[in-house]
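Researcher: Let's do a round of design. I'm pasting the structure tokens now; please hold your answer until I've finished.
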């Protein structure tokens, strides 16, 4: 005789933000109700009957934070039987990377507040959301070494130091970048092109040349794992 299941399905959203000044942040909401009332958590909630996972995570983001994101990538499914004190809840998590200044935050629904937090200065998180966030950070750090996922995080025109800072901020100390040859290597990939403009850098008397992304050759080169030029295999321990 088969056992009757009593499991709820939920979604959670890990929305990373990046600015050249503040670095990498994550969007969190303050819970209005128990369990974990007053604690900070990832935006999310239960999936409704007849609702797709993608529709559910978009709805919860809109309801709790006031923002809409065109595309979120599925991260992982979290199903520890004790992850929610109320009952058995399985959550499918999604993630995205955005520029925070393009959004106007507005807490509502189950959230009493919503803020961007530096990923290095996080409060204690409700449920298993610390584990979900750590998983998302590792996914982003891995993904940025083989796909240009950071392209939407910079302005249309940027300097090489700004691009270098983007990679260093997201990767942290997980991978070693050859800073001395970064400019030469990134240009060799054919994904950026120089524009006939310059911009003065903070703390520097010399203006830096500006570049922009060009993805015309990306699809063709992707299969060649072009980002191995930037991220050679680390020695095995």
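Researcher: That's everything. Go ahead.
Model: Designed sequence:
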């Amino acid at each position: 005789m088969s056992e009757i299941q009593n499991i709820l399905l939920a979604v959670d959203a890990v929305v990373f933000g990046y600015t050249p000044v503040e670095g990498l942040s994550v969007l969190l909401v303050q819970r209005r109700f128990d369990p974990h009332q007053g604690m900070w958590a990832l935006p999310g909630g239960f999936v409704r009957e007849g609702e797709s996972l993608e529709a559910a995570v978009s709805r919860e983001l809109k309801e709790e934070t006031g923002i809409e994101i065109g595309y979120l990538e599925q991260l992982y499914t979290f199903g520890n039987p004790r992850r929610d004190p109320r009952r058995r809840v399985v959550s499918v998590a999604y993630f995205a990377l955005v520029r925070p200044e393009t959004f106007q935050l507005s807490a509502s629904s189950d959230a009493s507040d919503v803020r961007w937090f530096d990923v290095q200065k996080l409060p204690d998180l409700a449920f298993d959301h610390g584990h979900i966030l750590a998983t998302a950070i590792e996914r982003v750090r891995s993904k940025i070494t083989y796909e240009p996922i950071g392209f939407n995080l910079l302005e249309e025109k940027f300097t090489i130091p700004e691009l270098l800072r983007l990679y260093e901020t997201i990767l942290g100390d997980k991978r070693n970048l050859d800073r001395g040859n970064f400019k030469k290597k990134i240009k060799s990939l054919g994904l950026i092109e120089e524009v006939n403009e310059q911009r003065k850098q903070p703390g520097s008397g010399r203006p830096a040349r500006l570049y922009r992304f060009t993805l015309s050759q990306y699809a063709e080169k992707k299969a060649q794992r072009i980002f191995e030029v930037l991220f050679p295999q680390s020695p095995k321990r």
